[in-house]
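User: Working on a comparison across species. This one is NERD domain-containing protein from Lysinibacillus contaminans. Can you predict its structure so I can line it up against the others?
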Amino acid sequence: MIDKPFTSSPFILGLQALIARLHPTHPQFERLQKELKIKEAGDFGERYIMQELQKFSTLHDFHVLHNVILPTALPMQIDILVITPNGVILLEIKNIRGQVRFKNNPRQVIRTTEKGDTAVFTHPEVQLEQYILAMQQFLDAHHISMPIYGAIVFPFNNVTIHREGEGLPILMAKELPLYFHKLSVGRYQQSVNDITHMILSHIRDRAPFPLCEYYDIEVANLQKGIYCENCGQYGMQKLKRGWICTRCQYVCSHAHVRALRDYYMLVGDTITNKDCRYFLNIDSQDVAKRILQKSCVTRSGSGKYTQYNLSGLYRKCEDSRWPPENR
Ligand SMILES: [Zn+2]
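Assistant: Here's the predicted structure for NERD domain-containing protein from Lysinibacillus contaminans:
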């Protein structure tokens, strides 16, 4: 069964927000666009593999978890974790197209596109070996003894793979059924419900927010204001209820929520009335106060020093479909 379904990476949401608020002439603009493309391709591949794995979900004791980060001494972020009675399987998904060469000594991945452009990536095996070791330590600490496997999976047949030497398995998505079948003939027959619950209860969130700090970008360089999702312009104006775009007259009741979410991902997890007026580009202190009191559950301090906490608002956006339908 799918115990932790696919969710889009919060890093992607953050990067999309950052690029949307950054001027194309900013020195980091192109680099960030490239980074976003790579992350989006990665997400697309992971979503596809999760759909494929759903087909096994009728199998007894076959538990699938997307994006698993556990509190381990060695950093660990597993794309997809599969827990079966015969072992724990870590899948590292690589959605790279073109000619891909896995080089040994030193271990590198070199990708050549159809146009002949080459790019060098970290060898996924290096990462995966670290995650396997971290998982070993994690299970040991919880007195669980289980075999741990790892495989690198390419979701689509748009890649030609060349490999030097031996190493962890590199599979195409279509090989997964056979791979799992081979593992299932092992001798271990543990019940995995408890292990799955234990792992689920330890899962952490991790996004490198705020992104301005992460990428060393001045907040002053960001486009301010409230985004119109109809025409793409910043600068919606407050109506008695909701917001109106001065360019296309589009009316939206919740446009400020997206701006506050952007602030959370790009600038910081708490905001003052003054910061809110600056970032959302609104003049009225009272309007800012009403928005913040309505949007933020927790706050600290008083008067003009009140800090409103945006993390609850961000989680709400993450959990529900975004943007909401009620316009
Ligand atoms: Zn508009």
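For your comparison, note: Residues 228, 230-231, 233, 245, 247-248, 250 surround zinc ion (CB under 6 Å).

User: Helpful, thanks.
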